[in-house]
Write a structure and sequence with these properties.
Structural class: alpha+beta
Distance between the termini: 120 Å
Number of strands: 9
Oligomer: single chain
Order of helices and strands: HEEEEEEEEE
Number of helices: 1
Helix content: 10-25%
Largest sheet: 4 strands, antiparallel
Radius of gyration: 36 Å
Length: 131
């Protein structure tokens, strides 16, 4: 009885294996269908420190000038004792620089809005001192 049971189990296992193999095997005459999925890689702009240097017509630094850089939002900064205003922003096209106010004795006669070039990290603003 044991021998008969072992033979039956072995035959049953072989039958299951043969059925499973024949279902997963692809006939040689059927074309193979492949699907290609397109992927896109987006690169994020690199964050960097952008320096605005404010000087007078003689190249001397000017403190207390309110500068603003805008893209999606506007960020105002005031130039320090070295005439520097630092902005942390992403290096990409479309940033607009504006001079909002000058200290007494200075005027800004440049363009009202300056669009910064992609990849640039600095810009110099020149003010005119009143005589």
């Amino acid at each position: 009885m044991k021998k008969c049971l072992c033979v039956m189990i072995t035959v049953l296992c072989l039958a299951v294996c043969l059925c499973a193999c024949s279902e997963t095997e692809q006939p040689k005459n059927d074309p193979v269908t492949t699907t290609t999925v397109a992927t896109t890689t987006t690169t994020q702009p690199q964050a960097a420190t952008f320096e605005v240097k404010v000087v007078d017509q003689n190249g001397a630094p000017v403190q207390g000038v309110m500068i603003q850089i805008c893209k999606d939002i506007c960020v105002p900064k005031m130039s320090d004792g070295n005439g520097i205003a630092l902005f942390d922003l992403e290096i990409e096209d479309g940033h607009k620089l504006s001079v909002l106010s000058c200290p007494a004795g200075y005027t800004y006669t440049g363009e009202a809005e300056v669009y910064l070039e992609s990849g640039s990290t600095s810009y110099t603003v020149e003010l005119q001192g009143e005589a």
